[in-house]
Every structure is written in structure tokens, then in C-alpha cells.
Write a structure and sequence with these properties.
The protein is α/β, with parallel strands linked by helices and about 400 residues long. The chain contains twelve helices and twelve strands. The strands form three sheets. A six-stranded mixed beta sheet has the order 1-2-4-3-5-11, with helices on both faces. A four-stranded antiparallel beta sheet has the order 8-9-7-10. The longest helix is centred in the N-terminal third of the chain and has 25 residues. The protein binds zinc ion (2 copies). One zinc ion binds next to loops.
Length: about 400
């Protein structure tokens, strides 16, 4: 039996269990850095399959690394398992986690034979937008010695190398002074007006930024009562650009708009966060080509998506991993249209037969790609040399 058939057989033995794991995660959504049950369930399954598991790595209680095999090529599969406030697993991270477990257990069946070490890295808090799990794990050395990394993300349709852009989330706080809004308005300093001025300024600078830049946010605190001049307001904003370099050009323009709010109203402004942004994704072309072939062999071709192929999409901290380690991040379709990621309707699609099929196909395509990386001599040489030089 060849290595890919052996991995496929192993996957067949655990498929129904992984679907159950995916559904269980979906039924218990946990927010970033609070994924206690989710991380435990995912790590437990790998433990039961004979992986050596280290929990709470890098001072992150909901991160882990689980490894199997003793081969010289070390491939990491990233497992995300955080959910979104209010709308649960509306990004399908339940599928990502189960898929990572499936891929690693299937490939581990032949790891020593083909010369692989496989690790699942449990990466918390992908949705938080700043200083997220993978960024902290990278800083603290969790990816040291890894030669290639991959993960597959659910989406409305299959897409091999989506244009994933850089992003930075930050919080803005304005401080003014309370006063009776009718009897003594001249004694008040209005922190809600500061936000209004800032949002107007942000609206105006849209004419003078790149068409691929994004600025979007919400007011999280707008005041407490209509008859009290608001003294404390807050907003959360995300800025995005095609690259970290362009993001660094956009940032001061947007920060100046928030400064304008403070100047106009005599409030004090404080900006927190934004210090550990998400990088753009650099897809490794050779790895992506192998993944494409494996996906097609499973009867899952990549359709021509026209303008979608080059249109900027979302952001992920897998981008940061991809700048440090050759990586791929294909999107796998769960047949959800018109529902798209970050909608409650998409969350409902993440436990359908189409989602379960995506789990199986994505897991196997990753397992086979890991086997290809180990058995292609030139690619293997390139991956191991790149990391030794790093
Ligand atoms: Zn998301
Ligand atoms: Zn996501």
C-alpha cells in the first residue's frame, strides 16, 4: 500500500469521530484566549492517537503543541478554535480544528516511513485582531524548527490562494467632562462629539487612501444618559492594507483623524492596541500547487472565480506565520451561499453535510500534501535549507 492510501485508510477509521468533534466545538463556542474546553477536546483527541502533547505552551493557557513521528521534515498544521461574540462559530473554526486533527492523525500513520514529524499547533484567538495567538506563539518560539505550515479555512467556495491582507485592530478612548446637558452645558466636555468629528474625518480621508485600504469600526461606548454630557466614549477600529508596509502608511492618517476629534472638542484621546498587527499572507506557490493536485484528486477542483481571485479578502494571523515559515492557507467551500463568513447563517452552515465533507476533504488534502513535501526531494531540500538559514 502506498503512503497516501495508508493515510486515507487511517482517516477513514476516525472520520465519524472528527465530525462529532467539529459539531461538539460548534455547540460550545468560546471566545479568543478563553477556549478552555475547545483546546482541551482537540488536544485530548491527539493525545488518544499517541501524539506527545504539551498544553499551555508559551504562557498561553489555551495553546498547545501535539507531535508525532521522528522524520527530519517537520510540518505544522495550525488548529484555530475561537468563535465570534454573539454569533458563535460563524467563521467555521470548529471545522478548522477537526480538520487539523484529521490531517495530522492520517499523515502520522506514515510519518516515519516518509520522513516526517507532524505537529498540530493549537493557535488561540485568531479573531481578536491584535496580538493574537499565532503572533504571540511566533514571538515566543513555538514555530522554531518547523519547516512548513498549513491550515485550511472554511468559506462559501473553494479558493486556493485568497488575497489575504494585513490588518491592525486598536481601541480609541476619549475622556471629557460630565455636566448637566441642559442646565450647565458650557461646563461639559463632550467625548461623544469627539467621536463624531473623528468619524467624519475618517470618512473624508477615504478619498486619499489606496482603493485596497480598509477602515471600519464600531462605537463600543457612546455615553450613559442623554441628559449627561458624555465624559467617556470608546470605539474599536480595524485598518487594513495589502501589506504591512502599506498599513504603516495608512496608520498615521487614521490616527490623526482620531486626534482631530480631541482637538475640536478639547477631550483627551488615548489609543491602545494596534501594536501587533496581522501580516499579509504569502502563499508558498509549490506547496499550494501540491495542495491543488490533492484537492482535485479528491474530486474538489478550484473554480475560476474571476475578480474574486485578486480582490482583497479578510486577514489572518496565519499571514504572520507565512512570513516566517513557508505556508499555505487554502479556503474550502461549504456550499453556504448566499451566507458568508461572520454571519449567523454561515454559523448554521458549519455543521451541515457539506461542512462535514469539507472537513474530510481538507484533512486528507493536507495529509497528502504533507506526504508530498516529505517525498519530493527538491522541495524537501528547499524547505529544510530555508529554516536552517533562518
Ligand atoms: Zn473570521
Ligand atoms: Zn476564521
Amino acid at each position: 500500500m502506498d503512503a497516501k492510501t495508508a493515510a486515507q485508510e487511517r482517516f477513514g477509521e476516525i472520520r465519524s469521530e472528527l465530525v462529532a468533534l467539529s459539531h461538539r466545538l460548534h455547540a460550545h463556542p468560546e471566545l479568543g484566549f478563553e477556549e478552555e474546553k475547545s483546546a482541551a477536546w482537540v488536544a485530548e483527541r491527539l493525545d488518544a492517537a499517541g501524539f506527545a502533547v504539551k498544553r499551555g505552551i508559551c504562557d498561553l493557557p489555551t495553546a498547545f503543541i501535539a507531535s508525532a513521528g521522528r522524520g527530519p521534515l517537520h510540518v505544522a498544521i495550525c488548529a484555530e478554535y475561537d468563535a465570534l461574540p454573539g454569533i458563535g462559530h460563524a467563521c467555521g473554526h470548529n471545522i478548522i480544528a477537526a480538520m487539523a486533527v484529521g490531517a495530522a492523525i492520517a499523515a502520522a500513520r506514515v510519518a516515519d516511513e516518509v520522513g516526517l514529524t507532524l505537529s498540530v499547533i493549537g493557535t488561540p484567538a485568531e479573531e481578536v485582531g491584535n496580538a493574537s495567538g499565532k503572533i504571540l506563539l511566533l514571538e515566543r518560539g513555538a514555530f522554531q524548527g518547523i519547516h512548513a505550515a498549513m491550515m485550511v479555512h472554511p468559506a462559501p467556495f473553494d479558493m486556493l490562494a485568497a488575497k489575504i491582507i494585513a490588518a491592525s485592530m486598536f481601541e480609541v478612548h476619549y475622556t471629557g467632562k460630565e455636566s448637566h446637558a441642559s442646565a450647565f452645558p458650557e461646563l461639559g466636555i463632550n467625548a461623544a462629539d469627539a467621536l463624531t468629528v473623528a468619524q467624519t474625518a475618517v470618512g473624508l480621508i477615504r478619498q486619499h487612501i489606496r482603493s485596497t485600504d480598509r477602515i471600519h469600526g464600531i462605537v463600543t461606548q457612546g455615553g450613559d444618559a442623554p441628559n449627561v454630557v458624555p465624559a467617556h466614549t470608546r470605539a474599536k477600529y480595524i485598518i487594513r492594507s495589502e501589506t504591512l508596509e502599506q498599513l504603516n502608511e495608512l496608520r498615521p492618517k487614521v490616527y490623526r483623524c482620531f486626534g482631530a476629534g480631541a482637538v475640536a472638542t478639547n477631550t483627551k484621546v488615548r489609543i491602545t492596541g494596534g501594536d501587533k498587527p496581522y501580516a499579509e499572507m504569502r502563499h508558498d506557490a509549490a506547496m499550494a500547487a501540491l495542495y491543488r493536485r490533492n484537492s482535485e484528486a479528491l474530486g474538489r477542483p478550484f473554480p475560476n472565480l474571476g475578480e474574486w481571485e485578486t480582490r482583497p479578502t479578510g486577514s489572518t494571523d496565519m499571514g504572520n506565520v507565512s512570513l516566517a515559515v513557508p505556508s499555505i492557507h487554502p479556503m474550502i467551500g461549504i456550499d453556504s451561499l448566499p451566507a458568508v463568513n461572520h454571519q449567523p447563517e454561515f454559523a448554521a452552515h458549519c455543521v451541515t453535510p457539506a461542512a462535514d465533507k469539507a472537513l474530510a476533504d481538507g484533512a486528507l488534502a493536507m495529509a497528502w500534501t504533507a506526504i508530498d513535501l516529505a517525498t519530493d526531494p527538491s522541495l524537501r531540500a528547499r524547505l529544510t535549507a530555508a529554516r536552517e538559514g533562518a
